[in-house]
Design brief:
The complex is a heterodimer.
Chain A: E1 13-14, E2 17-18, H1 24-41, H2 44-58, E3 64-66, H3 68-74, E4 78-83, H4 93-107, E5 111-116, H5 120-132, E6 135-141, H6 142-147, H7 149-157, E7 161-165, H8 172-186, E8 190-193, H9 203-211, H10 213-226, E9 232-236, H11 241-247, E10 257-265, H12 276-279, E11 281-285, E12 288-292, H13 317-324, E13 328-334, H14 335-349, H15 355-369, E14 376-381, H16 389-395
Chain B: H1 3-14, E1 18-24, H2 30-42, E2 48-51, H3 62-73, H4 78-89, E3 101-104, H5 107-113, H6 115-125, E4 129-131, H7 141-149, E5 153-155, E6 157-158, H8 164-173, E7 178-181, H9 195-207, E8 212-215, H10 221-228, E9 233-236, H11 238-244, H12 252-271
Helix pairs in contact in B: 2-4, 2-12, 4-6, 5-6, 10-12
Chain lengths: 402, 274
């Protein structure tokens, strides 16, 4: 089977994956959202607005930067970095939040809720809500609140309420559960901005479309700078939004090899990684049918990654579709390797990558090393590493906290 | 005949309503769950819903999720739940089917075993049907067909946000009874019954001959009295599950008595003056 770009279908299916596995209470809201999104997508006025804010507020287009020293270090193909770290708020997350906040305004809903793990999506949601005058509540696991004090402060400074989640594992997974619960009780006046290409239809398609600006710009920039398409495109995959946005515009370009990089964690044993596509099985989590990390009894498995943004036991259904159609190759990079990636990009290019991004850098350099000098490898530089400095310092045995 | 169909036929001919308690499996342990299920029946429950703990229950409120977390933290497995059900089912009034047992289970767990295997094991253990709260009708086709071919009831939910044409479709697809959700939101206790709910129930009554039971947010005898009009039964979950939070400070006998007395009070309210 070949991967199609004409997915999902009306029921939100990407091949076998996707759909809507949610309580009946949400079905009406999801149908409404699907209708509103379809109309907005086909409305040139909405698209113009979206593009306006991406350009004037986010600072797009983000550069496609030739990383000369990384290229030299790898010793093979030319390495280009798609600089999503230069967006306002420092990562790709803002693209989706601007799109969904505009849609929220269009639907006439005054309130937004969001979930966040490390806090990047929470900050981006709080930002978009401040920009458009929407009330914002962000669900965040107790563990993550403790680990990401700076992002908690940023969200509050922008007027968002941060709701501490103390149920279950007290991390991202439970923040999603709680946000869904809030939405079930508040759906009439509230929109839920899911931060990745996960959840029930239409979220996986909608988030992909808002993030597809990454891949579309990359494609155009390659044509302008190089006069041709890249040979390889690499991006990290947690829930999979930067990678879905990067890959989607290239799905029909069969000469372009697409590589998704998951969190290999400490080792491939259950509970020590978050490599859902590499080690998981198809199942249902958070309203969608996709690959998921479960134990033998069907319960969601604990996950681990050095990078909080990849620390998720599920993955977007379109990635599952791309895996099974073999359009995208998925691999994983360990915690230790990702730390090396953080260090290499910092020292050789003067750009501190997010730990999520560091996974893609390591794989991108490996792939570049195996290729000819004329070839082109693009790495999606999904976010900047400021947020990870404390964690990296801690792992290196330094204390930079006061 | 399926035990659920027989139950509602019997209740209707007697002019009575069903009281349906929800007992989550494995909290504080499976022996307690079995004792609680038996106590519920002894105190007048017509049918018992048994919750299958799942790690990410988006359809349930915080009280039930906390119970599920407690059970899973002790290593509870689905097979152990089936074994407990099998034991309960071997005794009266479950053996004869007078008090049917129904599973409340997330689709993730059903899919993991495979729908066919799940239904077979569930029936063999003694469940007469299941509620899969995160499986809307659009996704339920395959499971519905399988269930129908085994006369295993698949109970669907209608909520206050469900548009009318959709509610009609759901009522057609549901078997055993129709689960009418009383509030917008997740399971959990509420102080008042919203008036729009009564309108919706009256309208639904004109659309389906299927027994209608109402649940979510019911905790007080007054709720039960209000809701018995126009429905075939009421379902009480979180209000009972909340009692399990204190389980560690109570003896087994005290816990069973505590839940039993609450069930008895609600059953009394349901039948008062009828």
């Amino acid at each position: 089977m070949t991967a199609s770009v004409a997915v999902p279908d009306q029921e939100g299916r990407f091949g076998d994956f996707g759909g809507r596995y949610v309580p009946e209470t949400l079905m009406h809201a999801l149908r409404q959202l699907t209708d509103h999104y379809e109309m907005a997508r086909n409305d040139p006025e909405f698209q113009k607005q979206f593009e306006y804010y991406l350009k004037e507020y986010v600072g797009r287009p983000s550069p496609l930067y030739f990383a000369e020293r990384l290229t030299k270090e790898a010793g093979g193909a030319r390495i280009y970095l798609k600089r999503e770290d230069l967006n306002h708020t420092g990562a790709h997350k803002i693209n989706n939040c601007i799109g969904q906040a505009l849609l929220t305004k269009r639907m006439g809903k005054p309130r937004v809720i969001a979930e966040t793990g490390a806090g990047q999506h929470g900050v981006a949601s709080a930002t978009a809500c401040a920009l458009f005058g929407l009330k914002c509540a962000v669900y965040m696991g107790e563990e993550d609140v403790r680990r990401q004090k700076l992002n908690v402060f940023k969200m509050k400074a922008m007027g968002a309420e941060v709701i501490v989640v103390t149920s279950g594992s007290r991390t991202l997974r439970d923040a999603v559960n709680e946000a869904m619960r809030d939405w079930m009780a508040s759906v009439q006046d509230t929109h839920y901005i899911i931060g990745s290409v996960i959840g029930p239809h239409p979220f996986p398609a909608m988030v992909r479309d808002f993030q597809a600006v990454i891949g579309s710009e990359t494609r155009q920039q390659c044509m302008e700078k190089l006069g041709r398409l890249p040979d390889v495109v690499v991006a990290c995959v947690g829930g999979g939004s930067n990678s879905a946005g990067m890959f989607y515009p290239f799905v029909g370009d069969h000469s372009v090899q697409l590589v998704g990089v998951e969190a290999g964690g400490r080792n491939p044993h259950p509970g020590h990684h978050a490599a859902t596509l590499s080690h998981g099985k198809p199942g249902v989590l958070h309203g969608t049918f996709s690959y998921v990390l479960q134990d033998d009894d069907g319960q969601t498995a604990p996950v681990h990654s050095i990078s909080a943004g990849l620390d998720y036991p599920g993955v977007g259904p379109e990635h599952s579709y791309w895996k099974d159609t073999e359009r995208v190759h998925y691999t994983s990079i360990s915690d230790a390797e990702a730390l090396d990636g953080f260090s290499i990009a910092s020292r050789l290019e003067g750009i501190l990558p997010a730990l999520e991004t560091s996974h893609a850098i390591v794989e991108g350099m490996r792939l570049a090393a195996k290729r000819r000098k004329e070839d082109v490898v693009v790495i999606c530089f999904s976010g900047r590493g400021d947020k990870d400095c404390f964690e990296v310092a801690r792992l290196q045995g330094e204390n930079i906290e006061e | 005949m399926n035990a659920i169909d027989a139950l509602f036929q019997r209740l209707r001919s007697q002019g009575r309503k069903a009281f349906i308690p929800f007992i989550p499996a494995g909290d504080p342990d499976l022996a307690a769950s079995a004792a609680l299920i038996e106590e519920c029946a002894r105190r007048g429950a017509s049918l018992v819903e048994i919750g299958f703990p799942y790690s990410d229950p988006i359809a349930d409120g915080s009280v039930i999720q906390a119970s599920y977390t407690r059970a899973l933290d002790k290593g509870l497995k689905v097979d152990q739940i089936f074994a407990m059900i099998r034991e309960v089912k071997a005794k009266e009034p479950f053996k004869s089917g007078d008090v049917p047992l129904v599973g409340m289970v997330s689709y993730s767990l059903v899919h993991h075993r495979g729908p066919e295997a799940f239904i077979k094991t569930a029936m063999e253990a003694g469940l007469a049907g299941a509620i899969v709260p995160d499986l809307p009708v659009e996704e339920a086709e395959r499971l519905s067909l399988l269930a129908a071919s085994h006369d295993f009831k698949l109970i669907h939910l209608v909520t206050p946000t469900t548009p009318r044409d959709r509610a009609t479709r759901i009522a057609k697809q549901s078997t055993g009874f129709l689960y009418c959700v009383s509030v917008v939101g997740i399971t959990g206790e509420r102080s008042q019954i919203p008036p729009e709910l009564m309108d919706q129930l009256r309208w639904l009554r004109t659309q389906t001959a299927l027994p209608m039971c109402v649940g979510f947010g019911i905790s007080k005898p007054e709720h039960v009295k209000t809701l018995r009009e126009g429905t075939d039964g009421v379902i009480v979950g979180s209000a009972l599950v909340r009692r399990l939070e204190k389980a560690s400070s109570l003896s087994r006998a005290e816990l069973v008595k505590d839940v039993g007395e609450q069930v008895a009070a609600l059953v009394a309210a349901l039948h008062e003056g009828i």
